[in-house]
Design a protein that fits this description.
The complex is a heterodimer of chains A (258) and B (586). By secondary structure, chain A is an all-alpha fold. Chain A is globular and about 55 Å long. Chain A has twelve helices and two strands. In chain A, helix 7 packs across helix 10 and helix 9 crosses helix 10. Chain A starts with 12 loop residues before the first helix and ends with a helix. Chain B is of the alpha/beta class and 586 residues long. In chain B, strands 1, 2, 3, 10, 11, 12, 13 and 24 form an eight-stranded mixed sheet that branches. Chain B has a six-stranded antiparallel sheet with strand order 7-16-17-18-15-22, with helices on one face. In chain B, helix 1 runs parallel beside helix 7, helix 1 runs parallel beside helix 11 and helix 6 packs across helix 10. Chain B is built from twelve helices and 24 strands. The interface between A and B is large, with 70 and 68 residues. Bound molecules: flavin-adenine dinucleotide and iron/sulfur cluster.
């Protein structure tokens, strides 16, 4: 409804959008049975991308402002800065492409912690909490608190070992600290350091590869590195191929009917 | 105040395959049925556009909400059990209309004739001595031949796509209703290697079906488009056989079925040895109701079935110390951290389209299943299937790397991306047999949202459980070598590999087991409770063992059998449908 351009014949973006193009190409022959016409017909008719910055010149020179990127959960800039460094160490920028920071992982995690996941709304929380030093799931801390305690302990550890804050430590120093966390060699209140590290790792991967709607996997760059196509409606036309078939990525924004 | 409602012919707890089949069969015959489902209402429309790995597969949106109820777990009788608190550790059951049958993969295997008479057949072949101390083997009180027509009925209801197992000639009365699914490069690679090694591969029978199909009840299931959002998701296209598009649709069509969602069953109400109805809580209003019925059907999966029997004080609770009693015994499972482990092959030169697929797309073989093995030469009983399936790898949950690669950092990132599409996994799935001290009872400490005790699971792995998996991993490795994998990773099974919170899943059975006499079983072969004629407890809770493949075809077959019994019971005015086995009693 808000997407007025969908019925506008001048909207040429609709045709050039790679997600849509590959969708049409991929499903034209594939879908049989009752599913075919009715469902797929409706999928895209009212949705097209309203992409105002198609010229590459604008894209490269002006960094797009992302109004959704401000802290929602973390109150201290210092905590967020440690988080940025930590996730980048887990999933660094390299020859494959962007690392966790450029993919939006820190903001992804911030948003997750601000929501029901961060306060364990779906979990069984009745005590006694026995063995709370083990994993994030068994801890009496909620996930948000685990992040705060864990990140601050990383800073304490850095000050203790290298006389400098975690964010100012060298990459090797950061890696040394994180390895000790992963190996359960550090004390954190309410959770084992391994339990914290595992949560940090899994949320980092989530942020790198989730649908971009969550604020991670920015511009589907995580999927592109992995040659993962995303929300493709049908693979029936190519499932029997012997050769690897490379496809353009499709996000849920492109896929979902509106 | 508990409000008692008007009586109906049958009340059924649960709307999964087990409850759905009972509902369809009873309502087709004109009986009035009320279904009670603790979860919310859902239909196909809810699944359209739901290709969201984070929400469904990682956060487990369609699984049981543990904030309401969970299980507690321990290894031995002298330990304190702790709760499985989060779906991060283990997501167990479905919880909305259709149950787990909505977000399942759809691999639909029949179990082996031997499974149903496992005790007799083992003793016949090897003598009593081969059975380890503390292993609990017993027959089901029904044979494969008796069950075959119900397997066939389930396959036809679900439109299963498949081809016969070459090692099991003469075991099917009919073909699969639809042809096998399409073949992929991974399937071809596995099949060739298996044949080169002299094995007998065949396509995994699939409930993601190969072409549009209308079942005998007139329900249409669409042809699968291989969209790769099957396991943990509802099908966007109505192409996966689930209770919603099949049996529940049939029940609703009859005009005789009312499904009440958000209705949490808390007790089986009974008086003078007869079930009166189900007491439940409307979780939207907090009101309590009793739904009276002529027959009461409990089909809430293994855990709920066992727990409701214990909470309602029906039958004798199992005592692991002296082996008396039956409710809670024979807990078995395909554990995620043992039975369900995979051997992974990494290929440096070859790329497969791993992102594409569907839940049950694959190939399997039974060359190491029970009869194919000589157990006198092995350190385990039963057997396993080997298979590969192409479900469509999604990126958050698939970051597998060869063994020497770290699990985070530079090398991890590089290799996890490199191998994302360069992999074939071989999965083994083995039969799991029951042990005397592996059982379920009520937890003394932890409670559910209504203040009732949680179900407590006590379970420990035995040498036999580990040995069969180690053996299977070696066979899987040989297959991957034959395929030409450059690196192969085998999960390490050590003495420390132990039953834990990740061990229980929808492949868990026991608790209200089936057998030929009340001393050793809770229900007869119609799933009718021995000591309460109008109570039927249906589902994997009745398995005295877990076969070497996915359980749902057997759940479905037993549910059709149970429904036949319910109809008999209603038509003839009651009584026990099966005589307990006289010879065995002595
Ligand atoms: C991800 C996944 C993949 C799977 N893949 C396969 C596969 O490929 N092949 C295979 O054979 N099997 C598979 N399974 C297992 C299969 O889904 C189950 O065997 C099957 O669904 C069991 O059916 P059921 O009706 O007994 O139980 P369920 O489907 O669990 O249904 C029970 C219903 O009862 C309801 N209920 C429970 N307690 C209460 C209560 N107290 N009050 C009211 N309602 C209640 C639940 O909400 C649920 O809807 C898979 C399961 C999962 C989770
Ligand atoms: S892969 Fe097939 S059965 Fe599975 S969700 Fe997609 S269309 Fe449905």
């Amino acid at each position: 409804m808000a997407d007025n351009n969908s019925n506008n014949p001048k909207n040429t973006n609709e045709v050039s959008d790679p997600g849509r193009r590959s969708f049409v190409k991929n499903t034209g022959i594939a879908v049989g049975g009752v599913a075919g016409g009715a469902l797929l017909g409706g999928l895209f008719s009212s949705r097209s991308k309203n992409n105002n910055s198609t010229s590459t010149a604008t894209k490269e020179s002006v960094k797009e402002k992302r109004y959704e990127e401000a802290r929602m959960y973390f109150t201290r800039i210092a905590d967020f800065a440690i988080l940025e460094q930590a996730v980048e160490r887990i999933f660094p920028e390299d020859h494959n492409g962007p690392g966790a920071i450029e993919l939006g992982v820190p903001y992804y995690i911030d948003k997750q912690l601000a929501g029901p996941y961060g306060s364990n709304v779906g979990d069984y929380r009745q005590g006694p909490f026995i063995g709370s030093k083990a994993s994030a799931a068994d801890s009496s801390l909620d996930r948000g608190q685990i992040f705060i305690n864990g990140l601050r302990t990383m800073d304490v550890e850095s000050l203790k070992r290298f006389d400098t804050n975690f964010v100012k430590a060298t990459e090797d120093q950061q890696l040394e600290i994180m390895t000790d966390f992963a190996d359960d060699k550090v004390e954190i209140k309410g959770i084992s350091s391994k339990g914290f590290f595992n949560l940090l790792r899994s949320t980092t991967l989530e942020g790198a590869y989730c649908d971009p709607l969550y604020g991670g996997n920015r511009d589907m760059k995580g999927w592109k590195m992995k040659e993962y196509p995303g929300a493709i409606a049908s693979y029936a036309h190519m499932i029997e191929e012997d050769k690897f078939v490379k496809m353009d990525q499709v996000s849920l924004t492109d896929y979902q009917p509106k | 105040m508990v409000k008692t409602l008007d009586k109906v012919d049958a009340v059924i707890v649960g709307s999964g395959w087990a409850g759905g089949i009972a509902a369809a069969e009873l309502t087709k015959k004109g009986y009035k049925v009320v279904g009670l489902e603790r979860g919310k209402a859902q239909k196909r429309e809810d699944f359209v556009g739901a290709k969201d790995e984070l929400r469904y597969d990682v956060r487990k949106l369609m699984f049981q909400e543990l904030n309401k109820e969970t299980l507690t777990i321990r290894n031995t009788l002298d330990e304190t059990a702790t709760p499985n608190r989060s779906n991060d550790t283990n997501a167990i059951n479905g919880t909305a209309t259709g149950g787990s049958g909505v977000h399942w993969n759809g691999m639909v295997y029949r179990w082996l004739p031997t499974d149903f008479e496992f005790h007799t057949k083992t003793v016949e072949k090897y003598g009593e001595k081969i059975i380890p101390k503390d292993m609990q083997l017993q027959d089901w009180g029904i044979t494969y031949d008796e069950l075959e027509k119900y397997y066939d009925q389930f396959e036809k209801t679900a439109g299963i796509s498949g081809e016969p197992d070459p090692l099991r000639p003469g075991q099917r009365s009919d073909e699969y209703p639809t042809p096998p699914m399409k073949e992929t490069d991974i399937i071809r690679t596995f099949t060739k290697a298996a044949k080169d090694l002299g094995y007998h591969p065949y396509r995994i029978p699939s409930a993601n079906i190969s072409e549009t199909y209308t079942n005998p009840d007139g329900e249409t299931i669409n042809g699968c488009v291989y969209c790769a959002f099957c396991e943990a998701f509802g099908c966007d296209f109505g192409a996966k056989a689930d209770p919603i598009v099949t049996v529940l649709a049939t029940a609703h069509k009859s005009g005789n079925y009312e499904l009440r969602n958000n209705s949490y069953a808390v007790r089986i109400v009974h008086e003078n040895g007869k079930a009166v109805g189900i007491k439940y809580v409307d979780t939207e209003t907090g009101e309590e109701f009793i739904q009276p019925a002529d027959i009461v059907v409990v089909a809430g999966f293994t855990f709920t079935n066992t727990r409701l029997m214990l909470l309602s004080e029906i039958g004798k609770p199992y005592n692991p110390k002296d082996g008396t009693g039956v409710i809670g015994s024979h807990l078995t499972a395909h554990q995620r951290n043992l039975t369900h482990t995979r051997v992974r092959g990494f290929f440096d030169e070859k790329k497969f389209n791993r992102y594409a697929g569907t839940g049950a797309l694959g190939v399997t073989l039974d060359d190491f299943n029970v009869e194919q093995l000589d157990h006198t030469k092995l350190d385990f009983l039963h057997g396993f299937c080997l298979r590969t399936s192409q479900r469509g790898d999604r990126p958050i949950t698939n970051n597998h790397v060869p063994a020497d690669v770290p699990s985070w950092g530079k090398e991890f990132k590089d290799k996890s991306i490199f191998y994302a599409n360069r992999r074939i996994d071989v999965q083994q799935q083995n039969g799991a047999l029951a042990w005397r001290e592996n059982y379920m009872d009520l937890d003394p400490t932890y409670k559910d949202m209504f203040g009732d005790p949680l179900l407590r699971v006590t379970s420990k792995f035995h040498d036999q459980d580990r040995n069969i998996v180690r053996y299977a991993h070696q066979r899987a490795k040989e297959l991957l070598e034959q395929m030409g994998a450059d690196h192969i990773t085998i999960p390490e099974i050590t003495e420390e590999t132990e039953f834990d919170k990740s061990s229980l899943s929808d492949h868990t059975g026991g608790g209200v087991v089936m057998g030929d006499r009340p001393e050793t079983s809770a229900v007869n072969n119609y799933s009718q409770v021995w000591d309460m004629d109008n109570l039927f407890v249906v589902g994997a809770s009745s398995f005295p063992l877990m076969g070497s493949s996915n359980p749902t075809a057997t759940v479905g077959a037993l549910a059709y059998r149970a429904a036949e019994g319910m109809i008999k019971f209603l038509e003839t005015g009651g009584g026990q449908l099966v005589k307990e086995k006289e010879t065995a009693k002595a």
